[in-house]
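Ticket reopened. Same input as before:
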Amino acid sequence: MTESIVSVFRALIFIVIALALCGLIFSVAGYSAPDMFRAIIDGAFLRTGALQQALRWGLPLFITAAGVVISFRAGYFNIGAQGQFYIGAICAAFAADWLNGLPAFIVIPACFLAGMTGGALWAMWPGILRLRSGADEVITTLMGNFLAVIVLIYVTSGPLKDPTGSGQQASSRPLDAAYRISTSYGVSPTIIAIAVLVGIFMWLLVNRTAFGVLSGLAGRNATMVTWQGARLWNIGLASFIISGALAGLAGTVELMGPNGRLASGFLPAHGFTAILIALVANLSIVGTAIVALFFGGLASAALYLPVIAGLPSSAIDIINAAIALFITAKSNIVDRFLRNWRKRGWTT
Amino acid sequence: MSEEKQTVLECRDVGVRYGDVVALSGVSISFARGRIHAVVGQNGAGKTTFARAISGLVSPDTGEIRIDGRILPTGNVNQARQAGVELVHQSFALPPSFTVAEAMQFGAADGRIYSRRGLESRWQTYLDNLNVNVKAGQRIRDLPVETLQSVEIARALVSDARLLILDEPTAVLSPEGAQKLFERIRHLKDVGVTVIVILHKIREVLAIADTVAVLRGGMLVEGPVECSGINAEKLAELIIGPAARPLEDDQKAALTGSLDTAHAHLAQSVDQAAVEPVLKLTAVSTRPDSDGPPLEDIDLVIRPGEILGLAGVEGNGQRTLVRAISALAETSEGKITIEGLDVTRASLQTRRAAGLRVIPFERNVEGLSLTSALWENWSARELLQRPLLSMVRPTELRQRCGTALDAWEVHYSNVTQHAGSLSGGNAQKVILSREMDEQARLIIAAQPTRGLDIGATAFVWDSLNRARARGCAILLISSDLDEIMDICDRVVVMLSGRVVGTFTPPYDLADIGAAMTGVSK
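Engineering reply: fixed in the latest deploy. New output:
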């Protein structure tokens, strides 16, 4: 218990330091730091509609991040969430295109099935390569990302091209409104329900199944579970497939919800933000939900930065990057600080 | 100690805590200059922590440490080094890719620039003076352990160490190597270096040390007392403490190192040829792999209630044999049966379901996941016998783990603590509690007492004997012939992947030794 409290504190300290640093940088660059903070807090949570926007960005991120948690816990660094997200969206778009005209209660589940299967398959081949021949999954999943971007460009400018498109950005024909699960505004009960279901199932999988305990052990020491009689093939491949399927699910949600169409190069940072979220949350599902909403809030705040603080909206990328930097740079100083704190009996 | 010898090191009320675990508490002790002091105790008694506190690697929470009467700022390796304190670690710390000369220079770091040849000749003289038989140009990774240790000690002496601390230096050495080390230590004493040596074999303490101090449960229970005034039995009692179960005579004898141990229980071993064997290997061969020589034509039978010892110089196929029995190395020819069930092609999961249990060679790699919680480590075997998606209740598992660990006398504070926070003996007990359950039929114990102190060693032997009394078949792999001859009902010797000899009691050390090295026949 104390372990997880400390890790949340640790993450919070890092985020505060990162924000302070950004404030410093922006004020040196001639912007107003207090305005920046106000824009972030307002834009993320306080303004009317801000919370909805936070959910709009946060829920798909949570779905992908939950998948990342599953593979990272098992010790496989599937950093291909972005590619699996794209392939999932592409497969769902194809399904919607082929089944166009059929009633929504058939098309929507079929799209979800197609999207999850697509994402799962896109994670499966690096998984098989890793487990069969030891090919580093970091390399193969990263390659998978690049491939998926190319496939997306091809699909949006070829098979699914919208002939009436503006030409600025290649995209598919918009989905029939009957097949959409939310408006362009972004949140709907369906999406919330999907995210909640994912949350419940993944929490159960991680915390209440033999798979959860064993994959956690395998992630920390694969040799040990092998000597206990585990087949890494089963645990490992299942982790890849689940994590890919969730990224594909998030892709489907984005396609059939807020986006409504497949656009070349849409949401290019989704998968990487999800990885960041999973790491900040220390690979816990509950933590992932909280952190995903926080990052959803930041994404929503990006819209307010230009209005309130006069900053370009891409400033939010700088803030994200600063947080990533601080979280990943396992600071000895902060860790020692927290350890001393604990040693003195600050927590029981 | 009110002797008029000069005190070189004085500790007052030193205490160290790691999180919730008290590693050392209220240790007040002083050591006289120019002598050899032994510090002994069971695993987890605080020996290594004590060494680390003195050498500045850990900072004590209470107390003070004085060198030559001056207070040593704690938790600072450089300060300790300047005061003349050097620690030689239990596991070696020299960079493997360095040459000997580079490693030595790394410790000295005088800021001057040398050519490769200049560096090597500089250190060659130094090493020669210390009687370290090594070429300064050799790479650390190419050195045998004995030489490596000598180099470690030589490196520690570079900076004019006046107090040298050796943490379990004999753990990695052969008996011969240990003799050489002891000569080296005596030589150091002659040139005026004070040596504190942490040991856990009583025989070695009495062979080398002038005084001995005993730690138990993080506290000083005795000493330093003159070794001339104490005998092995008394020392064993001090180390284990009054609470432990009394040692059987043969255990005590083996622990204190007298070779003529009685094989009391062997006389009663009935004729078991008629009993169906638990494990049977028929002409088993494996393909070559990176883990030592392949098995060739191994025939092996272990019957219920029997401990079969597997002796041999390390690296002669023992590892492959254990892996073949555990389905981790593929059997290319032959047949393996467990309890009459042909498992030649079966997975480890199936074999474990048939009653196979394995205490692996590498406790910290193959046996436990050090960064996972105790309860996770403990429940892994059981969870693997269920479908992957079956539901588990962690609270229930934690409770049962706690009960099991208590029953096995593991010292831990919480089942959610990491396995890596336990000492070697306690970690091994966690493995025992997992692998020696009631359903176990065949227990493969690979080096189960390596690196353990006498209390934990006796505990392991006791557990093996109890499992044997329950009717388990046990295969004990050990490089300690004393251990094998003491507790095994039968001994086979492996050489280059083959079984080259089978021995029954009374054992002849010379015969077994000859078989191990291949000079017989």
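Chain B touches chain A at residues 17, 19, 326, 328, 347-349, 351-352, 358, 360, 362, 365-372, 376-377, 379-381, 383-384, 386-394, 397, 416 (CB under 8 Å). The domain at 7-84+162-256 of chain B is CATH 3.40.50.300 (Rossmann fold). Please confirm and we'll close it.
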